[in-house]
């Protein structure tokens, strides 16, 4: 926090100016020349632009101090990036190993956006030996195409194979391309239900952009649910959740535009969770349980399958039955 | 590079910042360092030091005054020369924690430890609130578990029978006789999986709720529980209407087979020592499924679904 100019005890103005630039680069990781000038103009104790010579002198001083500052000229703009500096948080070897393990997990994701952003953030936060393999984006034409659709902001007509492999046609307002654990999904608003949905990209077998622009967004719904039993004490809130009441049961409110994802999570709590409101979501939960029950109970296992399954439970299963 | 190309005063202030952020120093110690520095080469006067410290304070540094309590040392309690987390950065960290769900427990432990450290050092003015909010939202593990993780790792390796004092939120402190099998991480929490004498299947205990551990010499019980642990229960699940290329694995030890009599279905064979987690994964999956084997698990899930439905009757 800067003190008021009139109350500040005497200080070295030139050192202050130089350290102010250093502070800005530390806090932002990288800044364009324009951004730096803007910030310097706004600083009450500076309010001036430096000459090129002064600025170079400051950079030299920072480099002599141990800062690694790179200058990148791109699209007519100069970007100053603080690659490393002596006050950067050092990490313990165990923490560096953990960061590398985490980055490896992220690199195994179908989209590398998160991996790249994570590495960039770690670079800004700490000194760590990034994994030696060079970062090459896992370019996929299909992923890039759908990302472009999201940027274009035009309605999409997609022909999609749902979970049961049945073809369906959807009109979707594309929002973003997101990665699951092993799959990539197009997240968007289904125009018919006005709900946010996710479609597995590998199951979209045909699609076209429609001339109409995106107008609406999926509305956020506040879902209230009750948690009982062990969850009353053990439940930890997810982002966007608030506790309404604690006694005797835990009543939680969750604001979301992805009801489908929320319901799937709530299902795993079994009998210790009940959706209370709104009625439409409560009904949806009910329908899902019905469908799960129906699947669970109706299909009969005949004698042949029984034999085959018995064989499957034996310690050595024949390879011919395995899916390749 | 010539020395004229440097701003010497700024260089002195920068060095002072570096030294004081690493350790507390007296005026004499600071001057020893100034004198030893190749570019400075001489001590500074008390007035100059005061001048430099004022410059650092004007930039937002919090510097403690020398007093008998701190052995007349200067010390930087906080400086703003660190990264400032943005909302987008928090989103990246949040998303990362969700993705590393099934990572190795040591990595999760140290990653969380690193996160706590980072939140202490960032230059955001509201970093305390930011950290509280972030760790609450992300359900971050306590970073004080090192010794406990190490002990349980060792006990699991040696198959030691233990008496564990567990602080249950409902029943308070209780003692359990427990044979640990392995540590694992689920939803950013570290658990120890093992067996107790009074329960058929495996049990999992949250490590941050274990307050005491001691070994128990009872060879018979140990042998009995060890036998239980060696069993690798098989679970057969039929996934309906799911082409094998649409199936996304729910666990680690699983094999998929086409249903030989109805090709649109899949049969998944799990080898799993934690039916509780398997049940959770099945219920929260996108699949319609049926438990084929074992019967006990089938009945449990059938009953669960029935009771779930009753909630909405």
In short:
The complex is a heterodimer of chains A (324) and B (313). Chain A has 10 helices and 14 strands.
Note down, in words, how this protein is organized:
The complex is a heterodimer of chains A (324) and B (313). By secondary structure, chain A is α+β, with helices and mostly antiparallel strands. Chain A has ten helices and 14 strands. Chain A has helices at 13-28, 33-42, 52-65, 93-107, 113-125, 141-152, 231-234, 259-267, 279-298, 303-313; strands spanning 30-32, 68-74, 77-84, 89-90, 126-127, 154-161, 167-179, 184-190, 195-200, 204-213, 221-227, 241-245, 250-256, 273-277. In chain A, the strands form four sheets. In chain A, strands 9-8-7-6-10 form a five-stranded antiparallel beta sheet. A four-stranded antiparallel beta sheet of chain A has the order 12-13-11-14. In chain A, strand 6 and strand 7 form a beta hairpin. In chain A, helix 4 (93-107) packs antiparallel against helix 5 (113-125). The model of chain A is unreliable at 1-5, 132-137 and 317-324 (pLDDT under 50). Chain B has 313 residues and is α+β, with helices and mostly antiparallel strands. Helix content of chain B is 42%, strand content 22%. Chain B has helices at residues 8-22, 27-36, 46-58, 87-99, 105-121, 127-137, 146-158, 219-230, 275-283, 295-311; strands at residues 62-64, 75-78, 162-168, 172-186, 189-196, 203-206, 210-215, 234-239, 254-258, 266-271, 289-293. In chain B, a hairpin with a 6-residue loop joins strand 5 and strand 6. Chain B is elongated. Chain B starts with 7 loop residues before the first helix and ends with a helix. The interface between A and B is large, with 103 and 108 residues.
């Amino acid at each position: 926090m800067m003190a008021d100019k009139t109350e500040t005890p005497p200080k070295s103005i030139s050192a202050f100016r130089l350290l102010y630039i250093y502070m800005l680069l530390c806090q932002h990781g990288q800044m364009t020349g324009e951004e730096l000038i803007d910030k310097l103009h706004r600083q009450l104790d500076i309010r001036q632009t430096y000459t090129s010579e002064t600025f170079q002198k400051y950079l030299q001083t920072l480099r002599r101090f141990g800062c690694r500052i790179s200058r990148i000229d791109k699209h007519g703009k100069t970007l100053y990036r603080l690659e490393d500096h002596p006050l950067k948080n050092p990490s313990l070897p165990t923490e560096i190993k953990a960061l590398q393990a985490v980055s490896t997990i992220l690199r195994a994701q179908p989209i590398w956006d998160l991996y790249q952003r994570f590495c960039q953030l770690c670079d800004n936060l700490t000194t760590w030996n990034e994994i030696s393999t060079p970062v090459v984006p896992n370019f996929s034409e299909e992923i890039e195409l759908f990302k472009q659709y999201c940027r274009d902001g035009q309605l999409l007509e997609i022909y999609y194979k749902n979970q049961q492999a049945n073809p369906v046609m959807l009109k979707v307002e594309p929002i973003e391309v997101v990665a699951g654990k092993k799959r990539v999904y197009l997240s968007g608003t289904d125009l018919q239900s006005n709900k946010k949905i996710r479609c597995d990209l590998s199951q979209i077998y045909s699609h076209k952009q429609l001339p109409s622009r995106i107008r609406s967004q999926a509305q956020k719904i506040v879902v209230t649910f009750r948690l009982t039993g062990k969850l009353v004490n053990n439940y930890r809130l997810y982002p966007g959740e608030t506790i309404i009441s604690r006694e005797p049961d835990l009543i939680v409110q969750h604001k979301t535009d992805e009801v489908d994802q929320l319901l799937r999570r709530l299902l795993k709590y079994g009998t210790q969770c009940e959706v209370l409101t709104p009625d439409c979501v409560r009904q949806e939960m009910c329908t899902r349980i019905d469908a799960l029950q129906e699947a669970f109970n109706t299909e009969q296992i005949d004698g042949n399958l029984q034999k085959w399954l018995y064989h499957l439970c034996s310690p050595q299963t024949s390879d011919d039955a395995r899916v390749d | 590079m010539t020395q004229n190309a440097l701003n010497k005063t700024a260089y002195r202030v920068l060095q002072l910042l570096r030294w004081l952020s690493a350790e507390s120093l007296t005026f004499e110690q600071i001057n020893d360092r100034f004198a030893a520095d190749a570019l400075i080469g001489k001590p500074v006067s008390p007035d100059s030091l005061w001048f430099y410290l004022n410059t650092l304070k004007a930039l937002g540094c919090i510097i403690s005054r020398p007093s008998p309590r701190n052995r007349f040392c200067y010390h930087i309690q906080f400086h703003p020369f660190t990264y400032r987390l943005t909302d987008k950065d928090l989103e990246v960290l949040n998303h990362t924690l969700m993705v590393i769900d099934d990572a190795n427990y040591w990595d999760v432990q140290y990653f969380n430890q690193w996160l706590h450290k980072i939140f202490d050092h960032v230059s955001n003015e509201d970093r305390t609130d930011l950290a509280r909010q972030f760790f609450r939202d992300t359900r971050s593990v306590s970073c004080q578990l090192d010794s406990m993780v190490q002990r349980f790792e060792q006990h699991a390796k040696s198959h030691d029978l233990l008496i564990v004092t567990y602080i249950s939120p409902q029943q308070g402190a209780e003692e359990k006789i427990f044979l640990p099998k392995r540590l694992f991480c689920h939803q950013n929490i570290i658990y120890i999986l093992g067996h107790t004498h009074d329960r058929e299947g495996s049990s999992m205990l949250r490590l941050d709720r274990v307050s005491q551990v001691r070994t128990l010499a009872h060879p018979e019980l140990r042998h009995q529980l060890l036998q239980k642990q060696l069993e690798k229960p098989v679970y057969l699940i039929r996934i309906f209407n799911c082409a094998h290329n649409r199936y996304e694995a729910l666990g680690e030890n699983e094999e998929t087979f086409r249903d030989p009599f109805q090709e649109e279905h899949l049969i998944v064979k799990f080898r799993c020592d934690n039916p509780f987690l398997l049940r959770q994964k099945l219920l929260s999956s996108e699949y319609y499924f049926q438990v084929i084997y074992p019967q006990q698990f089938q009945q449990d899930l059938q009953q669960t679904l029935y009771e779930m439905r009753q909630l909405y009757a």
